[in-house]
């Protein structure tokens, strides 16, 4: 119950923030900062599987992001390095005050194995040099969090 209350409080804070108008930062400034934050980076942290309402053990998590591009409105493309190839991933980016929330809804990721064959959904908040979120795909899902660091060239 305590964990559900914490998740509810976090979700409420994220989705209520736009209504609060705590900072009136122009959209162009937010988007430029998001683009700079998410270019040539490694998202490195932990993820916890969730299956049948049970939180599993933490596992190492890494995502290599080459770049992000705004398409129009809230539509963006994240160019992620997966299996030695750069894959364009269409997403929505919405704002919770000055934090970006990446929204993925039922996205089929091309390829086989861990990525292909399942439609994935996710909500990942980017704030400063950290990220946190939740994802689901098929009969499994999880929670993730970590730090955003500029690439050192090792994953290129």
Quick overview of this protein structure:
With 156 residues, the protein is α+β, with helices and mostly antiparallel strands.
The CA-CA distance between the termini, in Å, is 43 Å
Beta-strand content estimate: over 45%
Average pLDDT, all residues: 84
**pLDDT below 50 for ≥5 consecutive residues: which ranges?**
17-22
SSE string, helices as H and strands as E: HHEEEEEEEEE
Please work out how many helical segments DSSP would assign.
Answer: 2
What helical percentage do the residues reach?
Answer: 10-25%
Q: What count of structural domains? A: 1
Helix/strand/pairing category? alpha+beta
* Quaternary structure: single chain
Strand segment tally:
9
Report on the biggest sheet.
8 strands, antiparallel, barrel
Strand order of the largest sheet: 1-3-4-5-6-7-8-9
Q: Cα-atom Rg, whole angstroms?
A: 16 Å
Shape annotation: globular
Characterize the structure shown.
A hairpin with a 2-residue loop joins β3 (59-72) and β4 (75-82). The protein has 156 residues and is α+β, with helices and mostly antiparallel strands. The protein has one domain. Helices cover 19% and strands 54% of the residues. The protein has 2 helices and 9 strands; from the N terminus they run ααβββββββββ. The chain has helices spanning 2-20, 27-37; strands spanning 41-51, 54-55, 59-72, 75-82, 85-96, 99-108, 119-127, 130-137, 140-150. The chain has an 8-stranded antiparallel beta barrel with strand order 1-3-4-5-6-7-8-9.
């Amino acid at each position: 119950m305590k964990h559900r209350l914490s998740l509810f409080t976090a979700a409420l804070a994220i989705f209520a923030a736009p209504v609060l108008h705590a900072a009136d930062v122009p959209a162009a400034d937010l988007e430029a900062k998001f683009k700079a934050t998410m270019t040539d980076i490694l998202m490195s942290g932990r993820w916890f599987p969730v299956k049948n309402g049970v939180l599993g053990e933490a596992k190492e998590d890494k995502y290599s992001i080459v770049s992000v591009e705004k398409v129009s409105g809230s539509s963006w493309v994240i160019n992620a390095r997966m299996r030695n190839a750069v894959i364009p991933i269409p997403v929505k980016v919405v704002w919770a005050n000055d934090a970006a929330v990446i929204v993925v809804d039922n996205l089929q990721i091309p390829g086989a194995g861990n990525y292909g064959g399942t439609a994935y959904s996710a909500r990942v908040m980017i704030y400063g040099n950290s990220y946190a979120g939740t994802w689901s795909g098929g009969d499994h899902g999880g929670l993730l969090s970590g730090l955003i660091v500029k690439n050192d060239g090792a994953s290129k």
